[in-house]
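Minutes, project check-in
Item: structure for the 363-residue chain
Input as provided by the requester:
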Amino acid sequence: MFDPVKRADMLRPLMLKNGKFLISRIAGTGEEVKEDEDRIAYSTYFKFKWYIDLPEQLSLSPAELWSPNLLGLVDNPLSSSLRDIKKLEFQNPPFSAAFRMKGKHGDPKDYNRAFTIQLSGCNYNCNYCFVPPETNACNPNFSKYFSVKEIVDYFLKAREDFNEPINVVRVTGGENMIVPEFVIELYNELEKIDGTYLWIDTNLSATKHMENVENELKDVLKRRNVGVTGCFKGTCKEDFSLITGAQQSFFDDQFKAAKLFLDWKTDLYVYLPALVYGNSVEQKIDGFVNMLQALNKNLPLRVEMLIIHEYPAAKRNMELKSKEKRPIPLTDQRKVFDSWYNKILPKYYSKEMLSKFCCEVPL
């Protein structure tokens, strides 16, 4: 098992060079495959993601979309398909963007299509990752350096080329906070464009580099048109290490990073892959909820659990990591969802709190 902090230090000079940032190539990697109508490349290096894509949801009015009836799991989740287990697969970023920009009068469909920028370089080696390993490794054959201005020009061209609204720019990876200067520079460019919302993914591992630009980064992260999602890799240190390949001792660093975001008044959300090893699913989830509550009593209500699909790259990663004795758990993901939404959260929160969208939950 490796040290992700040292790995980040090695990757940083490759991810940022001469004022330009290393962006992953999408074309030819399998990520442009339009399997679920939600992944398609706009160009060689940039792609879109749709979050609300069911016809019956796209036809709803804004008021209907904000109904708590869309939250949680379907009835009888353990007998449903994994793909259909959640009533609304993703709340974020469309709901969080609409709420932050316009309150519950905002239409999530206006923030449904995200122009996605994928930085190359990750200090984890997750066994379920949706990104091909070569794309995450700063490989010059699968990446290219861009200035922030060049990237924003692509975004503006995409806005011209499509009829539906494109108001979200999503920064993913790789791990963005290894080069937090990218977030700062990108926001400064997007600030000139009215109505734009910036969504930032992070694996909560790079506080060292965040703190190096604390003043500028903190100023960006507290803005109303910025949201951050921190992806926790597992509910305990043992599972964290199996998932990421990192040493168990770095499990706690995720909570330190989340606390830093909260201290900086960031609009923070949490992703949690539905991957739990062994038979103690409820016990592990209960312990994880308590760890989040130690940071903020309402933070578990801002968790969006992720379904792990076997996308082409994910399937490759699963096969590779299985050979390294790090297979994804055999535990049925539906059981993890059921434990989180139907058994553990109701122990700690009222029906009123459970009926709120993540973005409505105060921190």
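Outcome recorded: The CA atoms of residues 100 and 224 lie 6 Å apart.
No further action items on this chain.
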